[in-house]
Amino acid sequence: MTTAYIGIGTNVNREASIEAAIFSLQEIADSVRLSTVYECASVGFESSPFYNLVAEVSTSASYEHFQKQLRDIELELGRPAAAQKFQDRTIDLDIILFGDRISTVDPKLPRDDIYKYSFVTLPLSELCPDKIIPSDGRTVSQLQQLVQGEETLRAVELWFESTPVAV
What we know:
It is built from four helices and six strands. Strands 1, 2, 3, 4, 5 and 6 form a six-stranded antiparallel beta sheet that branches. By secondary structure, it is an alpha+beta fold. α3 (118-127) packs antiparallel against α4 (140-146). It has helices at residues 14-28, 63-76, 118-127, 140-146; strands at 2-10, 31-34, 37-40, 50-59, 92-98, 154-156.
């Protein structure tokens, strides 16, 4: 069993998109635990605000198979197959950490976003503050203290019944 951390983001039909993504993750994972949902302005382009959170999942799938499952969920929920980095999205499911796997080719693991964006590091630190980041040596909470993104985060109350939100 592998523990993976998935960054989830949307700025299109936010509540329905997050809810559908969570229920889809519950279908493919053995367990799912959620961080707080945060609202923040779009980063890198002008658009409506995003909802972001991180899900901790346990899976017996290989990295490659799990990555394909996430891509299939994105496509099923309306993400265009040729979606670009800085544009509106119905759903974005990014593997931040997959066990202790390290990859220097795209998609890189650990995902570079943990060094850049507080909308990734803050929810990740809620779920696994003491986890040592593979190839880095720092804990998630140490990294979260260093990441000072320009984005302002606002916690959003969970609006649907799901797995318990981490505290």
